[in-house]
Specification:
This protein is mainly alpha-helical. Helix 1 packs across helix 2, helix 1 crosses helix 6 and helix 5 packs across helix 6. The chain is globular.
């Protein structure tokens, strides 16, 4: 359970950095507490999308992983971010990613920040 909480906090932190750095990734809300709550819910959705859809997509695109020496990971991460944005829109959450290239850059930022935060925070169960 502790590992789940840590991963959710890491995802929320990485998403917050992406929202802060990129103008076309938006998180709106009335106040800081509302934005923080929305960010936690978005992080949960992002984690769910990554745990359910991403493995299937990786298996289907395995030849492209070999052909591009793993660079297709940027595209897969962007698709996961766009899917998260779409799900958030359906759930009336105020998180939106505008455009594919914004999602590629956002996915790269989220990956780097998540890696850095996981190096700092404990990940034991």
């Amino acid at each position: 359970m502790k590992n789940f909480v840590v991963k959710t906090i890491v995802n929320a932190g990485a998403l917050a950095v992406a929202v802060w750095l990129l103008d076309k990734i938006t998180l709106t809300g009335a106040g800081t507490a509302k934005k923080a709550g929305t960010l936690i819910v978005v992080a949960l959705i992002f984690g769910l999308v990554n745990s359910l859809v991403k493995p299937i997509l990786k298996v289907l695109t395995f030849p492209l992983f070999i052909l591009t020496l793993g660079l297709i990971t940027l595209i897969v991460n962007a698709l996961m971010l766009l899917l998260t944005s779409w799900v958030c829109g359906k759930l009336q959450l105020s998180f939106h990613v505008e455009g594919f290239w914004t999602a590629v850059l956002g996915g790269l930022i989220i990956s780097v920040v998540s890696w850095a935060l996981q190096m700092i925070l404990p990940d034991e169960d």
